[in-house]
């Protein structure tokens, strides 16, 4: 399949027909200047991945990602790279599991280099439906993103599991306040660690 090396927008519909384990150097749309605006259906399969700065999709704008388990093989806290990519904008993520199977389980430290588990730059007006974010036993700095704006996102029937966490959305807003604006569709099993 075309992995986004031509043009600025990758469109179309992509159906995964088996589990895949991709290297840290591979991305679906391999640059922040690329935007994925199509549909990706994992068809119940797993994408195992050591996240890179561009993520699997670069940036997702008006795109749909569904029916996929993303296996994060290397969560590194402040130095982690995001799974989806730099930004999620007006997109849909449904019936997806984000599972961490490898981590150094670092301390919860807010740094300028922080990355969210899902996105690095922004996460805006994106719907998460029937999603599981399973970072059991892991200390997570931020679930969605840290570096930029994080507004208008809606969770429905979704769950976030971790040992400890500092932020749901972005390091610019305390997690307790974010939960009020995000709504009640996200169940959290983990201990909130207030920022110093």
Kindly describe this structure.
The chain is mainly β. The protein is about 5% helix and about 45% strand. The protein has one helix and 16 strands. It has one helix spanning about 175-180, and strands spanning about 10, 15, 20, 35, 40-50, 60, 65-70, 85-90, 90-95, 95-100, 120-125, 125-130, 130-140, 155, 160-165, 185-190. The strands form two sheets. Strands 2, 3, 5, 7, 9, 10, 12, 13, 14, 15 and 16 form an eleven-stranded parallel beta sheet that branches. It has a five-stranded parallel beta sheet with strand order 1-4-6-8-11, with no helix packed on it. β15 (about 160-165), α1 (about 175-180) and β16 form a beta-alpha-beta unit. The longest helix is centred in the last third of the chain and has 8 residues, at about 175-180. It starts with 8 loop residues before the first strand and ends with a strand. The relative contact order is 0.13.
Question: Quick gist of this model?
Answer:
The protein contains 1 helix and 16 strands. With 196 residues, the protein is mainly β.
Secondary structure layout plus pairing:
Blueprint: E1 9-10, E2 13-15, E3 20-22, E4 35-36, E5 39-49, E6 59-61, E7 64-72, E8 85-89, E9 92-94, E10 97-100, E11 119-124, E12 127-129, E13 132-142, E14 154-156, E15 158-167, H1 175-182, E16 186-192
Parallel strand pairs: 1-4, 2-5, 3-5, 4-6, 5-7, 6-8, 7-9, 7-10, 8-11, 9-12, 10-13, 12-14, 13-15, 15-16
């Amino acid at each position: 399949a075309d992995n986004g090396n031509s043009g600025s927008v990758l469109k179309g519909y992509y159906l995964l027909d088996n589990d895949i384990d991709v290297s840290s150097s591979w991305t679906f749309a391999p640059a922040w200047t690329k935007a994925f605006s199509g549909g990706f259906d994992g068809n119940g399969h797993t994408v195992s991945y050591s996240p890179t700065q561009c993520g699997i999709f670069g940036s997702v704008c008006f795109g749909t990602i569904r029916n996929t388990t993303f296996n994060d093989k290397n969560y590194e806290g402040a130095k982690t790279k995001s799974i989806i990519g730099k930004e999620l904008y007006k997109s849909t993520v449904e019936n997806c599991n984000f599972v961490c199977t490898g981590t150094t389980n670092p301390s919860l430290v807010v740094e300028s280099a922080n990355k969210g588990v899902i996105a690095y730059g922004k996460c805006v007006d994106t719907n998460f439906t029937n999603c599981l974010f399973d970072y059991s036993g892991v200390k997570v700095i931020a679930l969605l993103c840290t570096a930029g704006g994080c507004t208008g996102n809606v969770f429905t029937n979704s769950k976030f599991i971790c040992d400890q966490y500092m932020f749901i959305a972005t390091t610019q807003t305390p997690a307790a306040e974010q939960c009020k604006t995000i709504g009640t569709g996200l169940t959290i099993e983990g201990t909130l660690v207030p920022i110093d």
